[in-house]
Amino acid sequence: MEQQTVLKEILKALDLHASDFHTQIAALNEKIETIDKKVEAMNDEFKSKFAEMDKRIQEMDDRLESRIDRLENEMNERFNRLETKIDSLRIELIETQETVDFHSSKIAQHDRKIRKLIQQQ
After folding, report:
1. Separation between Cα atoms, residue 26 and residue 110, nearest integer Å
2. Which long-range contacts (CB under 8 A, 24 or more apart) does 49-57 make?
3. Coiled coil where (predicted)?
4. Is 34 left (phi over 0), alpha (psi -120 to 50) or beta?
5. What is the pLDDT of residue 99?
6. Full-prediction pTM beyond 0.90?
7. Angle at the Cα of 41 (from 37 to 42), degrees rounded to 5?
């Protein structure tokens, strides 16, 4: 009978410890669930923030591309105008050279005539 009493005491002690252990496990489970909910909320917040950042970056990228396109068009337009001016100057230079050549030949003709007149005297 003494062994049964000792066994009953041991079983009661184990029951008390098991009950306490179950209580601690339940408390830990609640804490883990709370932490899981917080982590999930943070993940949702991060996803939202990253989506917002992606949107802003895309908007900035679009604006930058738009500005670059506008500048390229402006540069092309200016280069075209410059090319037109250079072509015009080239034509003017060619015409001026032709005029200089014509006048040079006329001056040479007049020089020859003057030399002939001087020699005849």
Report:
1. 123
2. none
3. 25-99
4. alpha
5. 95
6. no
7. 120
